[in-house]
Amino acid sequence: MLEKIAQLLQEVENLQASNADELEALRIKYLSKKGAINALMADFRNVPAEHKKEVGIRLNELKDKAQEKIASLKEQFATQDTGLEDLDLTRTAYPIGLGTRHPLSIVKNEIIDIFARMGFNIADGPEVEDDLHVYTKLNFAADHPARDMQDTFFVQLNGEDVTKNIILRSHTSSVQVRTMEHTQPPIRVICPGRVYRNEAISYRAHCFFHQVEGLYIDKGVSFTDLKQVLLLFAREMFGNDTKIRLRPSYFPFTEPSAEMDISCNICGGKGCPFCKHTGWVEILGCGMVDPNVLDACGIDSKVYSGYALGMGIERITNLKYQVKDLRMFSENDTRFLREFEAAY
Ligand code: DAH
Question: What is the pTM of this model?
Fold first, then answer.
């Protein structure tokens, strides 16, 4: 009897099954009512009394081992089979959500498209800049308040003291300078990009935002050319009924300078909270490039003239989509971003 038990124990320890059916056959062979172990149990009563204790212990061990082994093989199939047995090939597919373009990208691309149709190329420049390209060559006086710590982020290199020379650009006008430095007129470029200012973050200000700069330099460029391009841009962007108005302004790098308002496209110029009941909203700064800037960038101001313009992409986006809180643009909340699915 003990020999028989030892032999079955060995068999049980080496059991293998490659699928659930095989495993079931093994269970029947060893553990069912008519299985090998039960047959031994039935023989138990014929065991002489003096051996009953030892044989009983061994027999129980065998039964436990067999149950354990079958259970562990079963577990293996359970993990392997999940999903496959339940696979329903007739089920409809999970909808895969298409990504959406960011509203700022949508508007930026629209601005680029409009200017590209008027013959402007795209120019690019670094976001980590130096004072020369962001301020000095743009005719900012040494003590101009825009250079103040309040506005400009200064970059510290290798633990050295802040030199006030390496900075994050605070406007894309720096790309004007870089373009003029390495290109002779005619120049007709727009420069979209991110800019940084040391502002407290709120619903109406952020420490970074986006601008598009425009620059046109050639012989005989006049303010009339600027006005025409501005009018075309405003109509393409906001619709054919849009009116523009130019107000005198000041920028160090343009002379004369102006700010452009468009008739409020939310109330159609009648007056609403968005335009503070004036019927007009400001969208950009512009002017004729100051001769000092041309000369500083290696372009002969006696031969060439040109205009420049600069606008904030967030502002234009707000006008188009009435986003009330600037912070929405950088929070990546997909509930907000998905609203732009229909735009291109
Ligand atoms: N750089 C100006 C700013 O960030 C915007 C600007 C104004 C750009 C007038 C221009 C311009 O090119 O002519 O506020």
Answer: 0.73
